[in-house]
Design brief:
The chain is α/β, with parallel strands linked by helices. The chain contains 13 helices and 8 strands.
Length: about 325
């Protein structure tokens, strides 16, 4: 009944920014994403074994899913994995909102199944988990994950699925050097002990941990991420400089080190990719082995920065 165990690459590829309006200069990052540019991203990723693509209905209200499908056109469905999400906050009022939202995602992505289907935010675990069971039975979804859920909610979802012979196979939470609440709450340990894949998102903290920004070179004024992060840049400088130095001796960037740290913690980072060059960084990150003392040093510098990067959509863990 259950399909084979979830098997994923070292890094998953995020397509949140692919859901921009399609108007030039009107992306979330003021980006100008083109069909040919995204096709180049896909080709480079696929040829490097980075084949798990993470999207969601709410990324541009379906646009990210459509654009992703377009960029993957021509690849055999067995050559890539699709990860998308049911977001309770936008559930329709039909008899089966979960199946309805999945059906629309499948249509947009031109496929009859998703490899990984997430309950995006915890709304009412007892309500939204049971409708996944018939979709697992039919094969329309292969594996189930929960995102932004705390330990209690993960356990409840797992219990509900367990009664039907399935389980929560993946957890996706905000996790970075600056935000380690899932580790402190015991969620990482739980995932290790129960063979659950932990996906970390925002490992680069929307650019604040790439080493590209500093008090002298802040994030672009007027952007939502500038509002969140620019005030923290002075506190982050010691950390990002050390990340840069650790990267430099390995021919890598501070961003690569942030991603390598998340891999070293036993997690699968989901990193947003909009340029082919981003794939080069992920390939470098995948090859970096950080020493235990380097990990400890980075975490100590991150703790000393003492900043709170919890998203407005997140509950405490």
């Amino acid at each position: 009944m259950a399909s084979k165990a979830l098997d994923v690459p070292a890094v998953a590829l995020g397509t949140w920014a692919w859901g921009d309006s399609g108007e030039a200069g009107d992306g979330y990052f003021g980006s100008r994403l083109s069909e040919s540019g995204l096709r180049e991203v896909v080709e480079k990723a696929q040829s490097n074994g980075l084949t798990l693509w993470d999207t969601a209905v709410v990324y541009g209200m379906g646009r990210s899913e459509s654009v992703l499908a377009q960029a993957l056109a021509g690849y055999d469905r067995s050559e890539y994995q699709l990860s998308t999400k049911f977001t309770p906050q936008i559930a329709g009022d039909g008899g089966d909102p979960v199946a309805d939202m999945l059906g629309q995602s499948l249509d947009r992505m031109g496929t009859d199944y998703v490899d990984l289907f997430w309950i995006h935010n915890p709304a009412d675990v007892a309500r939204w988990t049971p409708p996944l069971i018939p979709l697992l039975r039919s094969g329309a979804i292969r594996h189930v994950g929960v995102s932004n859920h705390n330990m209690e909610e993960i356990a409840l979802a797992d219990r509900i699925l367990g009664e039907a012979g399935f389980r929560v196979e993946a957890v996706q939470n905000h996790f970075s050097l600056l935000y380690r609440s899932s580790e402190r709450a015991g969620i990482l340990d739980h995932c290790r002990e129960h063979d659950v894949r932990f996906f970390s998102y925002m490992v680069l903290e929307q650019g604040a941990l790439t080493g590209r920004y500093s008090p002298a070179h802040p994030l672009p004024e007027g952007s939502s991420r500038a509002a969140v992060y620019n005030g923290m840049l002075p506190q982050l400088q010691a950390l990002t400089e050390r990340m840069g130095a650790i990267g430099e001796v390995r021919g890598a960037s501070a961003a690569d080190v942030a991603t390598a740290w998340a891999i070293a913690k036993g997690t699968t980072p989901i990193v947003g990719v909009t340029k082919a060059g981003h794939i080069d960084g992920l390939v470098r990150a995948r090859g970096i082995e950080l020493a235990g003392e380097e990990i400890a040093e980075l975490e100590a510098l991150a703790d000393a920065a003492d900043v709170d990067t919890r998203g407005f959509w997140e509950q405490g863990m």
